[in-house]
Amino acid sequence: MHDFEFKGGDLYCEEVPLRRIAKEVGTPVYVYSRRTLRDHYRRLDEAFSSLPHFICYSVKANSNLAVLATLAAEGAGADIVSGGELYRALKAGMSPDKVVYAGIGKTREEMDYALRSGILMFNVESELEMEALDGVAGELGTKAPVALRVNPDVDPETHPYIATGLREAKFGIGIEEAVEAYRRAAALGNLEVVGVHQHIGSQITHVEPFRESISRVGELVEKLQSLGIGIRYINIGGGFGIPYRGEEVPYPRDYALALEPILRRSGCTVILETGRMIVGNAGVLLTRVLYRKRTGEKRFLVVDAAMNDLIRPSLYGSFHEIVPVEKRDRQGEKVDVVGPVCESGDFLARDREMPALEPGELLAVMSAGAYSFTMSSNYNSRRRAAEVMVDGGRFEVVRERESYDDLVRGERIMA
Ligand code: LLP
């Protein structure tokens, strides 16, 4: 479900034609639908409504302040992995007591900032991190609330770069070592053990890996509770996949139905760290065709967005649907859609059947709300794109396109 639809021959975001945004803001530009964001958040929230739960939106998926503020107004908390993400979440009005902090490389400075901000808990990923956090909390004269991130060793059947729950992954503490690690955490004077955390990967399109890992986590929780280690929260992580090309994927209620019995038995409050499912299909990247080009047998469509704007196709071989913003009768052709960056790996699509387009025409790269702008860079000294949010019939630029001055901010020529 999303709010990008053709009306007449024009692609709209809610009540605004994308053509209008491109004309007024220029391209490349990311466009987000506020209605879709809210709708996705509410569906997920509703699906888990029979359990005590809350959603800590995964900030890394899309950290624009307007996105965060929209979700904060819905009651979302935040799943963060850096001091920078904490800063954004707080700035957007998210409540610190709904912030959970994961990541294998938290610095002492970041721990200090998060403790002073009063976040709900740290998802601790190693024993040394546990000791460091205990030290920082001690210096501040406070107790750090923690969950241990356990690695349940299940195969999420997703791209290897985004699978995190296998034994060989760098994340978490092996589930077979978890009881011992919890004992040690409970013995540290400046930590308060409150939960268990897992995150097995991203863009998972089956319920089964979740059922398997949550049942392992459920058993661990029972064991811990029987040892008198008070676990009040189970954080099931993120990872719910979305359709990128109209494929069938589970709905939020499918996950909820499968996991509910195990989660209910634990008596814990459930935390979800969803990113992609909320924001992925709430955004598109608008780009304009610059040139057509042929080399040998290959045809290329050169557009003004590149791998620095959207790296997912180059990095993971991800598929993003690409549609002309104006519907017309056109012939079909097979093309590579490529950007201006000086790398052969700079493409948005390869060998794609597309309607034949002319320079100046607009394309929408679909499903570009998650891990798209947040993974963009200034490679080739390209200015990062603008971001726009649509709400009904109006739209606002929620991040300006970068200027040339922005590109060199903070740099100096050495004397
Ligand atoms: N929690 C933790 C601890 C995570 O590491 C992640 C994502 C999430 C939650 C949110 O997962 P989601 O619900 O969005 O699947 N750049 C890749 C995705 C990397 C995911 C990293 N961790 C991509 O473009 O597909």
Defining key terms:
Lyase, Ornithine Decarboxylase, Chain A, domain 1; 9-stranded mixed β-sheet; binds ligand LLP; 12 helices; 8-stranded parallel barrel; 2 domains; 415 residues; TIM Barrel; alpha/beta
Give a brief description.
The chain is α/β, with parallel strands linked by helices.
Question: What would you say this structure looks like, in words?
Answer:
- The mean pLDDT is 96.
- The chain starts with a strand and ends in a 7-residue tail after the last helix.
- Strands 4, 14, 15, 16, 17, 18, 19, 20 and 21 form a nine-stranded mixed sheet that branches. An eight-stranded parallel β-barrel has the order 5-6-7-8-9-11-12-13, surrounded by four helices.
- It folds into two domains: 4-32 and 280-408, Lyase, Ornithine Decarboxylase, Chain A, domain 1, CATH 2.40.37.10; 34-279, Alanine racemase (TIM Barrel, Alpha-Beta Barrel), CATH 3.20.20.10.
- The chain is 29% helix and 27% strand.
- It is an alpha/beta fold and 415 residues long.
- Helix 8 links the parallel strand 11 (191-197) and strand 12.
- Bound molecules: ligand LLP.
- Ligand LLP binds next to helix 10 and helix 11.
